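Tokens for chain A. Residues wanted.
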């Protein structure tokens, strides 16, 4: 589980790369669940929440950049 402070400390490029890695992992976990090979069932929840945290921080940064450009 990634903490929100750790996510906020990263750059946009790092966050996008981490988001891509997490989405690949999420796909693999879903595939494992469908084939009955999933052992770490709790990992699905952790990955889903980490994706949500990263998307939240990215949207926060987009909003703040848009507000600064208007001002």
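Reply:
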């Amino acid at each position: 589980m990634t903490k929100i402070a750790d996510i906020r400390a990263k750059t946009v490029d790092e966050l996008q790369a981490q988001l891509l890695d997490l989405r690949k992992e999420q796909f693999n976990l879903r595939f494992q669940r469908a084939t009955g090979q999933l052992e770490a069932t709790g990992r699905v929840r952790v990955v889903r929440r980490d994706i949500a945290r990263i998307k939240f921080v990215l949207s926060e940064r987009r909003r703040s950049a848009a507000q600064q450009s208007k001002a």
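The mean pLDDT is 95. The two ends are 36 Å apart (CA to CA).
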